[in-house]
Design goal:
It contains two helices and 13 strands. The chain is mainly beta.
């Protein structure tokens, strides 16, 4: 049996059965955080699109039996269009309709459905202790007051609020959070 190992794909099936979180956005798009990337359905689950993480190519190289014949490592440019990592932990939609995505090792990042782009914001710094985000509640920055800056639940760092410590649209993670 031959299996294609792709960075992204679209079709009737899911990339994995291991779901860590799932949300239905206000526009009825379904998003799922999995152990193998980010999954989207714009037609209420009839078809799915998925994106592997930036660590996907290295995982293929290290897999048992090695990479499949003809496998070509993705370029830096190709990887930059993907989520920070494969193992996604949680999801939340903010007031602007962006999807906040928690990761196991790289903090969080924000997916903009309108542009299809990812913004890692202040979450860069892979491997920092406390970058394992397992719950998020984005703040409401649409009212211009800057008062509600959101919350992040960290596996090893407790609960933190970014109030007063982050620019609009970004939630700091790891050591930058005020943790309890």
């Amino acid at each position: 049996m031959s299996r294609t190992i792709a960075a992204s794909a679209r079709g009737a099936g899911l990339s994995t059965a291991l779901m860590n979180d799932i949300i239905v956005a206000r526009d009825h798009t379904v998003y799922a955080a999995t152990t193998m990337g980010f999954v989207i359905s714009r037609d209420r689950g009839r078809t799915w699109e998925y994106m592997r993480g930036q660590d996907w190519g290295e995982k293929v190289k290290r897999r048992v039996g090695g990479p499949p014949a003809g496998f070509v490592m993705p370029t830096k440019e190709q990887l930059a269009a993907l989520p920070l990592e494969d193992y996604l932990t949680c999801l939340a939609e903010d007031a602007a309709g962006r999807i906040w995505v928690g990761t196991r090792q790289h903090g969080y990042e924000v997916y903009d459905p309108k542009s299809g782009k990812w913004d890692a914001g202040d979450a860069k710094g892979a491997g920092r202790e406390g970058n394992d985000v397992w719950a998020m509640l984005p703040g409401d920055r649409t009212n211009g007051t800057g008062g509600d800056e959101g919350w992040v639940g960290l596996y090893s760092g407790g609960l933190g609020s970014g109030a007063g410590k982050m620019p609009a649209g970004r939630m700091k993670s790891g050591g930058a959070l005020a943790s309890g």
